[in-house]
Amino acid sequence: MTAKKIRTGGELKAGHIRDYISNEPVRATPEEVEAVQVLSRRLVEDFGYPKSHIQTRPQHRVKKRPSDVEKSYPVDIAVFHTSKKTDSDLFMVAECKKRYRKDGAEQLKLYMDMSAAEVGVWFNGDEHEYLRKIHHKDGSRTYTPLPNIPRHGQRIEDIGLFARKDLKKPSNLKAVFRDLRNHLAGMTTGITRDEALAQEIINILFCKILDEQETDQDQTVTFRAGVGEKSEQVRERILELFERVKTATYEDVFDKNDTISLDADSLCYVVGELQNYCVMEADRDAIGDAFEVFIGPALRGAEGQFFTPRNVVKMMVEILDPKPGEKIIDPACGSGGFLIGALEHVWRQLRSQAKRRGWTEKQLFKREVEVATDCFRGIDKDSFLAKVCKAYMALVGDGRGGVFCANSLSRPEEWNPVMRDKIGLDQFDVILTNPPFGKKIVIKGEATLSQYDFGHKWTRNKETKELEKTTTLHEDQPPQILFLERCLQLLKPSGRLGIVLPEAVFGMPTYEYVVTHLQKKVKIRGIVSMPEPLFKTSGKGGTHAKTCVLFLENTPPQPEEDWDIFMADAKWCGHDSRGNPTIRKDSNGKEVLLDDIPLVTKKFKEIIGSW
User: Fold this and answer.
1) Same domain for 602 and 473
2) Sign, CA torsion 24/28/33/34
């Protein structure tokens, strides 16, 4: 959270932000930034309530007791039926200050008891509860949970009864996913591991995608949870959807034994939160953010698995500059960050072509799908990550059929026939990858190591003083060294590689043979040193390993040939070792994010130009 400036004659001073509804300056407390402002924006952008119907500043107040004359309880967010904002006009109240569900729900009920509000929302920035107030003939009141809140103009009874055309593009999918993850982690019975929760949400997302794809615009969606509907009914409907997901459309992603294991109440919670949205229309960066909410905690780095930060992905993609029609692969694709970044880059070029050539939207869409399907490939030996990557590719526009669960380092003849048909050595124009590395990870076995020059020991020739490969194999090798050579094997002549590696590969005498081999076989085009906190973003998680990005061209240097090699040392990457944004004030007092990564692309193009 960054402190902004508060208005004094138009200015904002430190420690304040501007309220989304009233435009008034408010203190930038965690509750204000993470809950009140997030919920206010969602009420307007996702649920369609006019700002004129919402009151945040000054806060609407309700009585503490029926006998009170003054109204002393301040309501964080009050939503009215009309812009008159009278007490009798109050429709919905929201409590965002209480951090815990029990306390928040009790405070919310007090507000609703003392007001005309029919709907209540507790939201702490991480999870929520929606309540409806029921009046009984004897004058008593009870509260029942709602699967979601109604949109502006919608009856409470009609929550969930959306036609396909009524689904809205989500404004903050990351906040929605964070809400879901925290609820599931705290409330779900029988599933506590992050990876298991991530798998559940992926399965449910595919149900949502299928429903969006197969439902006619005027038809009611199947992915829904209605008011008063039993959670078991919702679960039964979603499980039927998932059977269609497995057998009809996404059989290349799921096994026949895959299932959704969430209990009925938890599944109903997830469906209720997602049912308003058309996730297929979400911004692609938003999908990546949302995925990382679930998948990020599931990866602890035990197998060298770390998300490559998006600014680094963008930098590497822009420098390698993949073109439409070029074949692109990530042999350690993880959740698909590089593939998605490269796909977006290529699609932007296709959109420019479409504009110049007068393509219709249908022609452009057909070409986008063709490129994703024919030109993009990914491999990961982790079945969970391979499935995540397939899901991610399906969400942004397909290409999932090119993603495989396999060991990239094993012999190609050991890959399954479908994979061998789509992936082979000497086939790819561009490779973008961040292979696994770590002190505890090694590759063993003669069958694997014997494929690689780097699987053999090297010794210095006594006469020529040059390093030469021997016939003796190492007992084991770090995976990043073998991945580097496998990438060279996958590249076409003149193909381009961008790879994240430990900086030790280029600084320790142990790996001198690697540098010597590269200098003879390829043209090194650039080496960019990365800041130490790059992969250290979660306190105890992540790694402090100093990394760099190597750019090379699969072209053997000619004798006496000279070419420019780009060298850069990025001091800042946009976050510190705890994952907090590195924000400082410049000489003019303006807050800026310290991030050298975007500058690397600009300097590379200035110095090296295009490939």
Assistant:
1) yes
2) negative
Cis previous bond, 324, omega within 30: no
- DSSP, res 340: H
What is the secondary structure of 241-295 as a DSSP string? HHHHIIIII-TTT--TT------HHHHHHHHHHHTTB-GGGS-HHHHHHHHHHHH
Q: Phi and psi dihedrals of 89, rounded to 5? A: -90, -5
Residues of the chain with pLDDT under 50: 1-9, 300-302, 304, 537-541
What is d(CA 493, CA 426) in angstroms, rounded to the nearest whole number?
7
List residues bridging with 379 in a β-sheet: 404
- Tell how far CA 201 is from the center of its chain: 13
Report CA-CA distances (Å) from 434 to 116, 165, 258, 284, 515.
56, 40, 29, 21, 18
- Of 88, 81, 56, nearest in space to 153 by CA: 81
Handedness of CA 172, 174, 178, 180 (dihedral sign): positive
- Separation of alpha carbons 527 and 549, rounded Å: 6
Tokens 């190609």, residue? 412
- The pair of structure tokens assigned to 218 is 């005027």
Listed residue (496, 451, 498) closest to 473, CA to CA: 451
Q: Do 102 and 227 belong together in one domain?
A: no
Q: Which range of residues forms the domain containing residue 99?
A: 16-145
What's residue 9's pLDDT? 38
- Residue 569: strand pairing partners: 529
The pLDDT value recorded for residue 182 is: 85
Question: How many C-beta neighbours within 10 Å does residue 171 have?
Answer: 18
Domain C-terminal end among 254, 284, 314: 284
* DSSP reduced 3-state for 77: strand
Q: Would the CA dihedral through 248, 253, 259, 261 be positive or negative?
A: negative
Please tell me the distance from the alpha carbon of residue 483 to that of residue 354, in angstroms, as a whole number: 37
Radius of gyration of the chain (CA): 28
- Residue 231 phi, psi dihedral angles, 5° rounding: -60, -30
One-character DSSP codes across 412-428? GGGS-HHHHHH--TT-E
Using an 8 Å Cβ cutoff, are 8 and 25 in contact? Answer: no
Residues 411 and 537 in one domain: yes
Looking at the fold, whether 249 and 354 belong to one and the same domain comes out as no
Cα–Cα distance for residue pair 394/402, rounded to 1 Å: 11
Nearest CA among 263, 259, 268, 121 for reference residue 192: 263
pLDDT single digits (tens) 368-384:
989 999 999 999 998 87
Rounded to whole angstroms, the Cα distance separating 145 from 452 reads 61
Fill in the DSSP letter of residue 35: I
CB-CB contact of 310 with 573 (8 Å):
no
